[in-house]
Structure formats: structure tokens, C-alpha cells
Amino acid sequence: MKDKILVIGSSGQIGTELVETLRSQYGVSNVVASDLKAPETPGDGPFEALDVTDNQRLLAVVKKHGVTQVYLLAALLSATAEKNPLFAWNLNMAGLLNVLELGREKLISRIYWPSSIAVFGPNTPSDLTPQFTIMEPSTVYGISKQAGERWCEYYFQKYGVDVRSLRYPGLVGWKSAPGGGTTDYAVHIFHEALKSKTYECFLSADTALPMMYMPDALRATLELMQADPAKVKIRSSYNLAGISFSPKEIAAEIKKHIPDFMMTYKPDYRQQIADTWPHSIDDSHSRQDWGWNPAYSLDKMTREMLTNLDKVMKNSCNL
Ligand code: NAD
Ligand code: SER
Predict the structure, then answer these.
(1) Which of 23, 33, 98, 219 has the highest Cβ tally under 10 A?
(2) Strand, helix or coil for residue 110
(3) What torsion, rounded to 10 degrees, do the Cα atoms 277, 283, 165, 153 define?
(4) Which residues line ligand 1 (CB under 6 A)?
(5) pTM score above 0.70
């Protein structure tokens, strides 16, 4: 049977790029994008307005398009979730359980749901954080991701639902804007460096966090989803590593290209969140089980980010 894919939360930072990548592999008409509202500039392929917490509407969309696989991206991220904890908990949990139920009822055959480095907490070993370790997340976002991981493993073990997951680090890309996370500074910094050559960072200079360039994250996602089921041995969520850097280190890298770039620091409530997260991740299970190998260094990512964003900004000025 041909795969028919539904991406839920398709207008966000990851969804915007994931839909494009999936359509290039599976064909435009085989990838249905969905989000609360239609995007301002609709793409070529099918789109459905969908609130993932509405299980009847979700079922109708799945049946209408004969969906076989769901990529569930709709969630509230760490910083936004702290401002509205119960709303975040309800969205992050109800969305996942609605999709897992589709798997249990055999209406779909495979599910992708991202977890996060936010599942770890202040008592977790913070350097090269192992796959299996103390977690104890202290944000509502992290609590919802940890609970989500338990549900994924439960649905796999009890009902055989083929659900796959990665603990993404903070993602950095130039095609879409980040949606309210603690790692968003690592995207904003590039925009501001090109626009004004200054950036006021909301994390302190030495706050090292695990990060990843979007093309690596998209490749990891598709490699995991296309892996032989026997190779997917972890059904909670896999640790995934790309690069780790602090605001000071990324600023120094940008300065190599924009020598008069100036960074200032004004840590806010997001500093407390970042202080509970790992500095770097051990992803050896991903490497062993399904062959993960990241391609981007800080240097390579910085060059690509600046080159591509510069082109985007020049094009928008010429419009
Ligand atoms: P985002 O905030 O940019 O996008 C989320 C999208 O979901 C938005 O377009 C939003 O409109 C949509 N949405 C919200 N509520 C919805 C609902 N009820 N029904 C349908 N759609 C709804 O987030 P993102 O950065 O693209 O993250 C996607 C997933 O990846 C999330 O689960 C997030 O936790 C996870 N993740 C992201 C990162 C990162 O750095 N971006 C890191 C770790 C994990
Ligand atoms: N980038 C995400 C956040 O900061 C990590 O899950 O919320």
C-alpha cells in the first residue's frame, strides 16, 4: 500500500520544512498538511484545518485522505508552555493520545511524535547525557514530553502501535520561525546579526545546550521513520545529538563572518529552564540501532544560515 501522510502542526518551525521534505520524497498529493488555520501563503499540496484535540475531526481527516502515517508536531513549546501550564498539558497530551488511539484502532500504521531534551532535569548528568538516566523534568513542557514517551512505549507494548520518536535538541533553520522555545535565541541571533549587527540574548553567555541544524533533524526523522521496525528498539524516544554550543560560542562563530557583530546578554525566565537541561547528549543508541550520523558542525551551520538568510532578506527588499 502507498503511504499517505498527515502532518499535524504543519505551519510551525519544523512542519514548514518537514512537509516540503516529505512531499519531495512521497509526492505532493500524498502529504496532507494540517494546522489550526490555513497558512497565509498556501503551498501546492492538500491542507486541512484541524485541531488535533478534536478527535472526531481528526478521524474524519484520516478517513477522507486514507492516511496511513501521522507526523504529530502540534504542541506548546517550553517557554510558551510555562505561561499557560494547564493549556500546554492538555494540548500536548490530548493530541498525542488522540493519534495513538488511531494506531490502536489500526486506522493508521505508523506514527512519528517528537520528544525533546526537555525530558531531562536538574538531577540529570548534564554532559553527554545518557539515553537511560535520571530524568525529573521541572517544566510543564518537559513533564508532558516525559509522560508522552511513557504513553508511546505503552501503546507499542500493549497494542503493537508502531510509534517512533526522537528527543530533538534545539533546532536551528532559516526557512521558518521558531515557535516559543528556550533555544529560539539560536535562530533569532542570525536574523539580528544580518539586520542590525547586534543581538541581546535572553540566555547567559556560557549556557551550553544541545542543538541541531534543521537539515540534520529532518534527515534523522525520515531515517527513523523509514527504518526496518526490527531496528527501532527504543519505543519511548531516542536521544539525538548534533552540535552543542553556548551563546558566546555561536556569537564568536558569527563574528568570523560579520566582524563588527555585537552580542549583549539579558537573561530572562528562559535562563531557569535552560539551566535544567543537558549541555550535550550521548546518542549512541541512535547510531547503533538505525545508523544515525549528523552532518553539520557549528561552522558549517553558521555559514549556511548566514548565506541563506542573507539571500532571503535581499530578495524581500527587492520585492
Ligand atoms: P511550533 O510551535 O513552531 O509549531 C507547532 C504548530 O502546531 C504551530 O503551527 C501551531 O499552530 C500548531 N498547533 C498548535 N495547536 C494545535 C492544535 N490544537 N491542532 C493542530 N495544530 C496545532 O513547534 P515546532 O518547533 O515546529 O515543534 C514541533 C514539535 O517538535 C513539537 O512537539 C515540539 O515539542 C518538538 N520539538 C521542537 C524543537 C525545536 O527546537 N523546534 C525541539 C524539540 C522538540
Ligand atoms: N527547542 C525546544 C524548546 O526550547 C526544545 O524542546 O522548547
Answers:
(1) 33
(2) strand
(3) -90
(4) 8-9, 11-15, 35-36, 50-53, 73-75, 77, 91, 114, 116, 168, 170-171, 178-181, 183
(5) yes
Residues 66 and 34 both lie in one domain? yes
Own/partner long-range contacts of 182-187 (Cβ < 8 Å, ≥24 apart): 182/77, 182/78, 182/79, 182/209, 182/270, 182/273, 182/274, 182/277, 183/209, 183/211, 183/274, 184/79, 185/247, 186/211, 186/245, 186/250, 187/13
- The domain that holds 84 is classified in CATH as 3.40.50.720
| One domain, residues 202 and 119 | no
Catalytic pick among 71, 112, 141, 213: 141
What integer pLDDT is reported at residue 78 of this predicted model? 97
Please state the domain count of the chain: 2
Query: Quick one: 225 and 248 in the same domain?
Result: no
User: Do 137 and 127 share a structural domain?
Assistant: yes
**Rounded distance between C-alpha atoms, residue 162 and residue 185, angstroms:** 34
- Angle between the N-to-C axes of helices 55-65 and 85-104, in degrees from 0 to 180, rounded to the nearest 10: 40
176 C-alpha to ligand 2 centroid (Å): 15
Range of the domain at 153: 5-170+212-239
Q: Is residue 259 part of a domain?
A: yes
Cα separation, 233 vs 109, whole angstroms: 17
pLDDT for 317 beyond 90: no
Note whether residue 288 is domain-resident.
Answer: no
DSSP label at residue 129: B
**Residue range 41-89, pLDDT digits in tens:** 777 899 999 999 999 999 999 999 999 999 999 999 999 999 999 999 9
* 319 pLDDT above the threshold of 70: no
